[in-house]
UniProtKB/TrEMBL annotation:
Keyword Membrane applies: yes
Predominant localisation class: membrane
Record's protein name: MFS transporter
Highest taxon above the source species: Bacteria
Protein topology in the membrane: Multi-pass membrane protein
Membrane-spanning segments: 21-42, 62-82, 94-112, 158-182, 194-215, 249-272, 284-306, 378-398, 404-425
Major facilitator superfamily (MFS) profile domain segment(s): 21-433
Protein localization: Cell membrane
PANTHER family: SHIKIMATE TRANSPORTER
Organism: Brevibacterium metallidurans
Keywords, sorted A to Z: Cell membrane, Membrane, Transmembrane, Transmembrane helix, Transport
């Protein structure tokens, strides 16, 4: 039986089931990205001095961001392994596994002694845990987005795909709020000594909640149709690389810009603004939380826009505006004015959803259901590896030049290259399967 015949077999979906899936996708993704970005906040505030001590603050920061990047390097491995298993065993089982990997590694970080206590074993174990985090989140995004998109009505692909995507700013908001609350509740010495561990240990409670919610969700209609018609592949990776390598690479290329912008603004700038610009830590955390709230609110609105005008058009508009906005954005941020910095983050995270909202629908639509989990995950994680180096690259560029303009140039060039790729990319080939 052909793939098209498989996808023609009806699978009834009720509005209640759709709502449950959206809720589970959003909550689970928010919890996992809480874990992932909590490490980013701790990199700037704790891990550099406590796990990578050095007489040179720049060297310590670079080492800490290097460990941060390890998580992104590991994400393609998670995308390949869990994507392949998800195409063979279903989306739901991999989402449960990814949550266990993320939650377990985050709690372990909260229990890990620092360099002063156990020496070089501390950074080694921390990097290993970060590797596990990367594998877990590498399988999370593709599964969560596919759960939503494969349950969606045809006219609302971007909107449904944006709901789990909203878990990313929600996770950032939650991570920074918890860090902000804990750091405000105790003295700086106490935060550095022990209180920083509280947000990591709290992940254990969140994971239990998310695990329960996801247990109540059924498999997607697309995968059920494949099972009914015996179209589930034994080797989905083989088919993916034989027939869909080019779409997969294009999908990775266009996915680079959103995380580069996000990581620079939410991870690197926390270090730069507090250490180089002398901005109070609490103020910078407020800025990042504010920007994430703007992004969270904008994503569903932009997704509706993308469903109307076309997913590719929305994506290309976001890239074009990003390229134009980068230099003014940094000019506002480096002005030192709290109000102008807030404005820079607000505009940035209104532009960002033009890309991030339709991203799930775009990547899901370029692969058939038999290889969709693998293809979408690997495309997304190709971008994550490249974008994951952005805080490290940012630290090196700004550290070498003592200003942000080389970083701005790097971001503009990256955006233009990805925009050119988007022009030539075909989207929507398998959007309705």
């Amino acid at each position: 039986m052909s793939a098209s015949a498989a996808t023609d077999q009806p699978v009834e979906v009720t509005p209640r089931e759709r709502l449950r899936v959206l809720w589970a996708s959003f909550i689970g993704t928010a919890i996992e990205w809480y874990d992932f970005f909590l490490y980013g906040s701790a990199t700037a505030l704790v891990f550099a001095p406590q796990f990578f001590p050095s007489t040179d603050p720049l060297s310590s920061t670079l080492a800490a961001f290097g460990a941060f990047t390890i998580g992104f390097v590991a994400r393609p491995l998670g995308g390949v392994v869990m994507g392949s298993l998800g195409d063979r065993m279903g989306r739901k089982s991999m989402l449960m596994l990814s949550m266990m990997l993320m939650g377990g590694s985050t709690v372990a970080m909260g229990l890990l002694p620092n360099y002063q206590t156990i020496g070089v074993a501390a950074p080694i174990i921390l990097v290993a845990l970060r590797l596990i985090q990367g594998i877990g989140v590498g399988g999370e995004w593709g599964g969560a987005v596919l759960m939503a998109v494969e349950y969606s009505p045809r006219s609302r692909r971007a909107l449904y795909g944006a709901i789990p995507g909203m878990g990313i700013p929600a996770g950032i908001i939650l991570a920074n709020l918890v860090v902000f609350w804990v750091s405000a509740a105790v003295a700086p010495e106490a935060f550095a000594a022990w209180a920083w561990r509280i947000p990591f240990l709290a992940s254990g409670v969140l994971v239990i909640v998310g695990f329960y919610i996801r247990l109540r969700v059924g498999e997607t209609p697309s995968f059920k149709r494949l099972e009914k018609s015996a179209e589930v592949l034994k080797n989905p990776l083989g088919m993916l690389f034989r027939k869909y390598t080019v779409p997969m690479l294009f999908g990775g290329l266009i996915s680079i810009v959103p995380p580069i912008v996000g990581h620079v603004l939410t991870v690197f700038m926390l270090t730069f603004m507090t250490q180089a610009m002398g901005m109070p830590q609490a103020q910078m955390l407020i800025v990042i939380i504010f920007g994430s709230v703007v992004q969270f609110a904008a994503m569903p609105l932009v997704a509706v826009f993308a469903d109307k005008v076309g997913h590719k058009r929305s994506y290309m508009l976001g890239m074009a505006l990003t390229a134009v906005w980068i230099f003014p954005m940094f000019a506002l941020i480096t002005s030192g004015s709290f109000g102008l910095i807030m404005l820079a983050y607000a505009v940035s995270f209104i532009i960002h959803p033009l890309m991030s909202s339709p991203q799930g629908a775009v990547l899901a639509g370029i692969f058939p259901p038999q290889v969709r989990y693998s293809g979408a995950s690997i495309s997304y994680q190709i971008a994550s590896v490249i974008a994951g180096f952005s805080p490290l690259i940012a630290a090196a560029l700004v550290g070498a030049s003592s200003n942000v303009w080389p970083l701005a140039t790097y971001m503009v060039i990256s955006t233009v290259v990805c925009l050119i790729g988007a022009v030539f990319m075909k989207v929507g080939t398998h959007a309705h399967e």
